[in-house]
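call fold(seq) -> tokens
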Amino acid sequence: MTENTRLIGLDPGLRNTGWGIVDFDGVRLRYVACGVISTSASMMMAGRLAILYGGLDEVIKMWHPTSAAVEETFVSKNATSTLKLGQARGVVLLAPALAGLDVAEYQNRVVKRSVVGTGSAAKQQIQMMVRHLLPSADPRSADAADALAVAICHAHHSFGGAQRVAGGVSA
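ret:
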């Protein structure tokens, strides 16, 4: 791979959906941007989902990623919460697909293992390693850091393997 591949990682949530964009040249990762799309719990579900879709569509149009990855969500014991999160996740999968991007999915443990080296890493460990692997990144929230971790994981698994990524984190 001689040119950069722009990857978007997405951490779905109904209240906060994190997004993170990196460029990957086959060897090195370079931070591009990250952020969070937020909705208000006081809004109707359809409006919240529309905000998520519109925000993601705007991010994709602004940054022109060539590939997307979404973290699989944790299923809670609360059926109502799980259903709401599933609806948000559907929108998070749909937005890049409608933009013509291939969309990969990664389990939470795979993302953690790719970035930290262990599938049971704490959020603080993920944030620390994201900052180590992407020194110019300064994610303002755990959601944005998690999204960057998903993008890093995607680079490891889809574009050349973890052994070649600068920073030496193995999957």
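Strands lie at 5-11, 16-24, 29-38, 67-71, 102-106.
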